[in-house]
Design a protein that fits this description.
The protein is flat, with a radius of gyration of 32 Å. α13 crosses α15 (361-375) and α17 (413-431) crosses α18. The two termini are 46 Å apart. It has 19 helices and 16 strands. A five-stranded parallel β-sheet has the order 2-1-3-6-7, with helices on both faces. A five-stranded parallel β-sheet has the order 9-10-13-8-14. The chain has a two-stranded antiparallel sheet with strand order 4-5. The chain has four domains: 6-129, Rossmann fold (3-Layer(aba) Sandwich); 165-313, 3-Layer(aba) Sandwich (Rossmann fold); 317-400, Helicase, Ruva Protein, domain 3 (Orthogonal Bundle), CATH 1.10.8; 413-457, Homeodomain-like (Arc Repressor Mutant, subunit A), CATH 1.10.10.60. 49% of the residues lie in helices and 14% in strands. The protein is of the alpha/beta class and 463 residues long.
Length: 463
């Protein structure tokens, strides 16, 4: 793999320094050698390094003192300490002072390269997460929305344009997309932000109770109404009311809501006295209201009253790398809430998350990250931490056939590939109860070829 990291190599032994420098440059690193502490300080003052490899004993100073200085001047730089056998205690102290790793001389060059690769990989992962979190914070401060895809950027621009508007807004999108988050962003960015935003889910409350919830009631209006109670519209006076799942509202209440939108007044249940309100209305639905109108379930005149400013939230599957931005946002949030330390995701997890369809959208992602931070607590998210429904057949097969390449002395490629092929064929046959036609279709191969391979490999059903 091609490297591009810049390394400061501090070693007073010239022969050993040249050996290390040649090995590192052969591996593709940019190396700046320093034979003593003075040259190391000069190099640090004039350059920026990803990693310093530092000997403890130097002719004009102590490597531990250099470690303190370097860690103070560049907290993010990686530092590997080299030490002799008698200095192991000193190296342990160096780790406490901020060194990332240490190697006891003499050591194998390949071991050094492995340590460097792991350190730089973890450093890059932290930098990526830091960048993503900064993007999240910057955008969240402006609009409350998290995402870099075109649709979210356009919504952010629209929120800014609507900052001084009281126009009614209709938000559409699948369940779990974040319609209430968008509604809160509209409220916070507007002139009514100092006033209350009152939310109500019109699909979660029975019709006989929803009218009282929206418009309030007077004492004695119905059995159990022992005192007067204001409705959500009255409570939201001066601010914003968010009517979630407006498409589930009954025809009777649609008529009353239409009047509120037209005249900004209503009568509480059991009263003939009108109450006037100054309130901004934001409505949301996962339904296609034009289809609902065609089916006779939603009033066309109410639709046009609501659809003054239409906003559509895209499903998470259409938002590309926003999945990773949102993942890091939720990791930061739940790490803090639960005292966990999940630092990121493996590359396999990133690929899986980007390819997954997310039927539950952002809500499903949020629940997943909360579950992982609660149960795993530390480390990075690996493929085995994800629910089985998220893992593709390809990833599942590869996950079940992983090999320990780092510790293997050697691999017989032909026999390993043959074993892997047998594993795939047998798994497919077992999945389809040894129906060879279905197994061949699943493996995208000719049935005759499959039968020949079964005979050649001696594969048989398990008893």
């Amino acid at each position: 793999m091609k490297q591009s990291a810049f390394i400061l190599l501090v070693e007073d032994n010239e022969d050993f320094r040249l050996i290390l420098q040649e090995a590192l440059e052969t591996a593709g690193f940019h190396v700046t050698p320093a034979a003593n502490a003075t040259r190391a300080r000069e190099s640090m003052a004039t350059g920026k390094f990803d990693l310093t490899i530092l000997d403890v004993r130097l002719p004009d100073g102590n490597g531990i003192e250099l470690l303190r200085e370097f860690r103070q001047s560049d907290p993010d730089m990686g530092i590997i300490i080299m030490t002799g056998y008698a200095e192991v205690d000193t190296a342990v102290d160096a780790i406490r002072l901020g060194a990332n790793d240490f190697l006891k001389k003499p050591f194998d060059i390949d071991e050094l390269l492995i340590r460097i690769s792991e350190l730089l990989k973890n450093r890059q992962l932290k930098n990526d997460n830091k960048t993503l979190l900064e993007q999240v914070r910057n955008q969240d401060r402006i609009t409350g929305l998290i995402g870099q895809c075109d649709a979210i950027q356009k919504l952010g621009n629209t929120i800014r344009l609507l900052a001084n508007s009281d126009s009614t807004v209709l938000i559409t999108g699948e369940s779990g997309c974040g319609k209430e988050v968008l509604a809160k962003s509209l409220h916070k960015s507007g002139t009514r932000s100092s006033k209350p935003m009152v939310s109500i889910n019109c699909g979660a409350i029975p019709e006989e109770l929803l009218e009282s919830e929206l418009f309030g009631h007077v004492k004695g209006a119905f059995t159990g109404a022992v005192r007067a109670r204001p409705g959500r519209f009255e409570i939201a006076n001066g601010g914003t009311i968010f009517l979630d799942e407006i498409g589930d509202m009954s025809a009777k209440l649609q008529v009353k809501l239409l009047r509120v939108l037209q005249e900004r007044c209503f009568e509480p249940v059991g009263s003939q006295q009108s109450i006037h309100v100054d309130v901004r209305v934001i409505a949301a639905t996962h339904r296609d209201l034009e289809e609902e109108i065609a089916a006779g379930r939603f009033r066309e005149d109410l639709y046009y009253r609501l659809n003054v400013i239409p906003l559509m939230l895209p499903p998470l599957r259409n938002r590309g790398e926003d999945v990773l931005l949102l993942t890091n946002h939720f990791l930061s949030r739940f790490n803090e809430e639960k005292g966990a330390s999940i630092t990121g995701m493996s590359e396999e997890v990133k690929r899986t998350m980007l390819n997954y369809q997310w039927p539950g959208n952002v809500r499903e992602l949020q629940n997943l990250i909360e579950r992982v931070t609660t149960l795993k607590r530390v480390g990075i998210i690996e493929l085995e931490d994800l629910p089985s429904r998220m893992i593709s057949d390809k990833d599942r097969v590869l996950q079940s056939f992983q090999m320990d390449m780092d510790n293997a002395e050697g691999i017989d490629l032909k026999s390993t590939v043959d074993e892997f092929e047998s594993h795939l064929i047998l798994s497919a046959l077992q999945r389809f109860n040894w129906n060879k036609n279905q197994a061949a279709n699943f493996l995208a191969m000719n049935r005759t070829t499959l039968v020949e391979k079964i005979k050649k490999k001696g594969l048989q059903p398990t008893e």
